[in-house]
Design a protein that fits this description.
388 residues; alpha/beta
């Protein structure tokens, strides 16, 4: 295990030094392919520009159907790294600030461990090294293939800087939120700032819309359902003494309940259009749906806990987040045409700066435990859940 640990740490540092943004993970994909191929692990021939799908084929019997899939995301963020690590990013303005370098390395480590034990396996295990999670739709590139057609359930995981090494966070139910974007263009009539009565002020109407949108969470949504709406950008005008003809605002909605998601879209459009009309303006709403909420299947949660016990690792209740992850697309019936049970767990990487922070870093002592845990998780799942 010591030799494997050094191998994984060495490659983790390479991935950290060479971060690539969403849909640009060319070197990253080539490196993953090289390492897996060297280990004799098969890469499925999907026509992906970046990312890949590997398969471990069990030799225990003649089963060929998939027994599970594991998603490992591979992209980095447009952040200037401010750590003092000797292996910090060599790409200006790019950084693995979300732990995807760990995700890649732990996924490779799990593949190597499973490949060594393939005589014990029946069926196949698919390892999805997915591009563009940070763009929220990279999973859809994978799902354009038939990779999930025979997969009975799917695992996802994430680096967790709120917990120490050897701690696994998991819980049943929703653990990430559905992520949607809205943009509102408010059209008025421009005029001189000294004569607002000659026009229709879109900035005033936009400001009223911002205030009114906050009533959705407090007055339309069940108080026991987590949700939020944040207006994150408002723009309008070019100078101090002219009332512009247009103003824009943009923001995000986060929900965990499917019905709340539909409600928010309807109410954002109604409130924006009708509030603008009350000020004599017009509003046009653009709604962009992102990933749904990720839901942890109770049976899979039990397997997560059992796998941790087998390795002497501690489990804690996973904190629910209003952040999103496109892992949820792998579970979603609207995307898949069927509901696929899934479980998204958090792997402790040492308490430190939060993800997406310029000083975020993974304790390298977490790398081998993460790989061992993922391999054990897949093995335990195969033991406990019969094939299709």
């Amino acid at each position: 295990m010591e030799r494997l640990e050094q191998y994984l740490i060495e490659n983790f540092k390479w991935f950290h030094r060479h971060p690539e943004l969403s849909y640009e993970e060319v070197q990253t994909t080539a490196r993953i392919r090289e390492l897996l191929t060297e280990a004799g692990i098969e890469i499925l021939p999907y026509p992906l520009e970046t990312g890949l799908v590997a398969v471990i084929r069990g030799q225990k019997d003649q089963q060929t159907a998939a027994r599970a899939a594991l998603r490992c995301d591979i992209d980095a963020l447009p952040i200037v790294e401010q750590t003092s690590l000797e292996y910090r990013s060599e790409i200006p303005g790019h950084m693995h600030a979300c732990g995807h370098d760990l995700h890649i390395t732990a996924g490779i480590g799990a593949a190597l461990l499973l490949q060594e034990r393939r005589q014990e396996l029946s069926g196949t295990i698919k390892l999805i090294f997915q591009p563009a999670e940070e763009e929220a739709h990279g999973a859809l590139k994978i799902l354009e293939t038939d990779v999930m057609a025979d997969v009975p359930y799917v695992w996802g995981f994430h680096a967790d800087p709120t917990n120490p090494v050897n701690v696994i966070g998991v819980r049943e139910g929703y653990v990430t939120a559905a992520v949607d974007r809205f943009a509102v263009k408010v059209r008025g009539v421009g005029c001189h700032g000294a004569h607002p009565d000659d026009g229709v002020d879109p900035i005033l109407a936009a400001s009223a819309i911002v205030q009114a949108l906050q009533s959705i969470v407090s007055r339309n949504v069940n108080s026991f359902h987590p949700s939020l709406l944040s207006v994150t950008r408002i723009t309008g005008g070019t100078t101090w003494n002219v009332i512009p003809a247009e103003a824009e605002l943009e923001g995000t909605v986060r929900t965990m309940d499917r019905h709340d998601r539909v409600l928010y879209e309807r109410r954002v459009k109604e409130i924006s259009e009708q509030t603008a009309a009350a000020y004599g303006a017009e509003a046009e709403v653009e709604w962009t749906a992102g990933p749904p909420a990720a839901y942890n299947d109770g049976r899979l949660v039990q397997i997560c806990e059992e796998a941790a016990r087998r390795l002497g690792m501690k489990t804690v209740s996973e904190e629910r987040s209003m952040g999103g992850d496109d892992f949820a697309f792998y579970e979603d019936s609207d995307t898949m045409g069927r509901q696929v049970p899934g479980c998204y767990v958090k792997i402790g990487t040492g308490v430190g700066y939060p993800i997406h922070h310029s000083e975020f870093c993974v304790d390298t002592r977490a790398i081998l435990p993460a790989a061992r845990y993922l391999a054990q998780l897949l093995l335990t799942g195969i033991e406990r859940i019969p094939p299709f």
